Amino acid sequence: MAIEINAVKRDAKGTGASRRLRHAGAVPGVVYGGGKDAVTLELNAKELFLQFRHEAFHASVLTLILDGKKENVLLRDFQMHPVRNTIQHIDFQRVSATEKIHVKVPFHFINADVAPGVKLGGGIVAHVQTEADVSCLAKDLPEFIEIDVSVLEIGHSIHLSQIKLPKGVEFVQLAHGDDAAVASIAKTRGGVSAAADATDTPAA
Prior knowledge:
- The protein is mainly β.
- The protein has 4 helices and 16 strands.
- The chain is 12% helix and 44% strand.
């Protein structure tokens, strides 16, 4: 999913200027990195929020159109209003085509309904992790990573090392020797998951 964000350079800086921007229906921001100077931005609040709601906005290489010129960026930080749920400020980082990036990518779990531990054992799938840090070149970054839990029995789990990744992509956590569990089939006790008991046994 290709996402484009329109922005213009923002000259006025400071808390007062940012407040006036928000009142006018705009969001202050900044883009930095890539061996270039940081540039302060102004973005349309409604247009930005429509894009922001997509999962891919948070885990994809985005196209920032700044005063008509395009560059690839990643979302690096944002602040939300605690009551209104509006974006108060947003940060983007420029992406190099030749340098690896670290990005949190969401997991999509599939086939839970046919897993033996669910279908025959009456358990439930416990999502131990819902996303993970990956390292790759910008061109190889996946929007999400699919986790097939169809083989899981009660008490079994899937670990990072058992997940097939696209070419050129690796889990940062696994590269540091941490083969953490991602999902398990947990027993239920009166309808409450016993997930703590189901994260130690890897899937066969």
